[in-house]
Amino acid sequence: MNKLLPVVFILFTALGISQNNENSQIIQELKATVINAQTNFPLESVHIINLNQVKGTITNQDGQFAIDAAVNDTLYLTYLGFKPQKVRVTNDMFKFEDTKISLTELAYALEEVIVRPYQLTGFLEIDVKNLPVNSGYQYSISGLNKSYEGGNKNPSAVTKVLGAILNPADLLRNLFGKKPQQMRKLRQMKEDDDIRDLLASKFDRETLIQLLQIEKMDIEDILNNCNYSKSFIQTANDLQILDAISSCYEEYKVLNRK
User: Where are the alpha helices (DSSP H) in 52-110?
Assistant: First the structure.
């Protein structure tokens, strides 16, 4: 009987740990308030994204927000003129309703900007030939005021992806293969209106970097290998970049299964 006691104790301990781990994954509604760290005033229209659940929301006029989350999830907060911040969700944030998250204002240093005009000759035929031409194929979507780019039609994006599959060492395959779980979030990101609205207003790729857990250089490499033009990569907003990566990844998955 005495020999059984340690075994029973270990079993109950393991069961308790297992239950705690299960409880930590329970998704609940988290409520909190976002304030200015300098003034303690609430901040309206702050974007909050749960990087684990791929859910987004914004604060109301009182700086309050509610979002589905589980313990140990990471919230990513962004607001124009303030430093982005990542916050780890804890049990106390669910227990107490007065949780406040502070954002710090950014200090901007103005840099010298040099404007370099095109060297025009005054002769239309010559000037037109000297202007840079974007050869990328573009298309528009109803309801959006910006056009999207589908890559050059020759060779096609599918051809570029096919080349990635035929060559296992190709950069595109390596990039998609490094973060398969993160890439699966692409569809969830596209289905969340709050995340789409945020990405449509951003051009710095920072939110995409946090959501996909890849480097900015990786994003550019993916688009280059999917045959998107340099001008598209540099000028597109984050929502357009998301759709471009998603389209490329879907083609990659189809061809990779073959």
Answer: 91-95
